[in-house]
Protein 1
Amino acid sequence: MSILPDEADFADFRKQCLSTDNWSSKYDKNGMQVLVEASPTNKGNPVPKVHKIKCKMTINDVSAATMYDVIHDGQYRKTWDPAMLDSFDIARLSANADVGYYSWICPQPIKNRDVVTLRSWQVTEDEYIIFNFSVKHLKYPPRKNLVRAISILTGYLIKPTGPNSCTFIYLSQADPKGSLPKWVVNQASQVLAPRVMKCVHQAGQMYPEWKQKNSPDQKPWLYPEQNILPMMDPGELSIQRADSLENMDESSKVAAVDNQDSS
């Protein structure tokens, strides 16, 4: 069975992005909403797990096509993503899927994180979809100085609402690993999400001018023939499960930070 997403996976991702059942609002202002999926219950007890979070932003000054390019353009990301440590594409798996690496800076004293993900995308007349999930790649095992995090499912649904406006939805369920308490992770994601979305929106506003000066015709995510990454057999990858990675104990560090905050 192929690891590559098929039509049903794209349909399921779209459904989750647009669904209103079972989501509770945590933030709603200035055209931005942050929603968290209600936890499933197990014999009356809520199952502690990492929240699935969804951010929906109404954008009135950037086209859906531009926002889609911003998410894909790795060169441009280096100019606007303040959290990025390192990011690169490893190989392509098909005309609309690749595998890549991303690492990011976490607030001190928590260790920095990284992920290896399979990303796939789809463009239709009335929407753009990109999503990823964590995979195991033999040449990119967990590194000593970073904690390997897990993207269970992370992605974007972008729908045009006019020639220069769109609805931009970000959906993510990710486990940062380490033994950070789940409530810390969930609280942090609700606070950080609006900040990240604002950052992405600003990146969209500035992209056309930047792209004009930086290989304007080069968009391999739209034109697969431009893609010069080596081909890789998707069969060499497997889905990275959270429970197969070791937990780095950082709870004492979080406690120390909490104490400083409250003093």
Note: Residues 20 and 35 are 9 Å apart (CA to CA).
Protein 2
Amino acid sequence: MNKALRNPYTYLAFIVPTLVLYCLFFIYPVIVSFIYGFYQWDGISEKVFIGIDNFKRLIHDDVFLKSLGNNFYFMAFSLLVNIPLVFLIAIMVSKARRLRGFYKSAVFVPVVISTATVAILFGVLYNYESGMINQVLRMIGGESWAKEWLSDPHLAMLSILIANAWQNIGFFIVLCLAAILNIPKEIGEAAKIDGVNAWNETWKITLPLVRPVLFVMLLLTVSGTLKVLDIVQIMTNGGPFQSTEVMSTYALKIGFRSLELGYGSAIGVAMFILILIMTGILQRVSKSEEVQY
């Protein structure tokens, strides 16, 4: 066994298949998308080179600009609501003396459920006639309180954001909780001896010490919200009246329904570049430093 581990070909046997799959399903599609973005093509006839016309079209495409705004809406909600909620719940679970393992498992369960299942589940909950949410609202305030959650342009995006948060928040809670529990107990005990209350301990000790993990959460949130697709596609398909359209759903419609593969590829390239820019800015603004306890 030791002789096999000292052989460099052993490591190559594990690395090469993974590298091939990575290049085949990530690098190659990105390169092809960049190339197709300079062509007008319906997937059947000959490709026609049109230069940067597809990218110029993005600037004047009202639907694309609206979908871009919806992606930023996703991002703002996740950064301003989800992450603070994650930190708060992680703090509460870390303070629990009993059933901590149960709480960790309970918040993580939605993560392992497929997005399609979550979307269908919330679609049932949001149903105007029989959905549990409207049934409860009718009991409280009558028929006027019932809402068309997924058919109202003013409520559809918020409804999707809540479903998306319910599914993904557990992963970040477990991640943040692991960082909090990794803080040496001696630090908290010393703070209590010095008379530090729970509020100051949370904001002046715990928060700075878990900052690198929060930064990782920030990066994952930004990249995830810019490429969100499945939950929007299943719950509303970008409707009603494109109020929930995001870049991914719009690229899918343009590329495979309108058969404008060149323009659809240009949208995908714009998404890729935007994610690179946003993550690059975050890495410069919020440099992750190793925490010394």
Note: The longest strand covers residues 39-40.
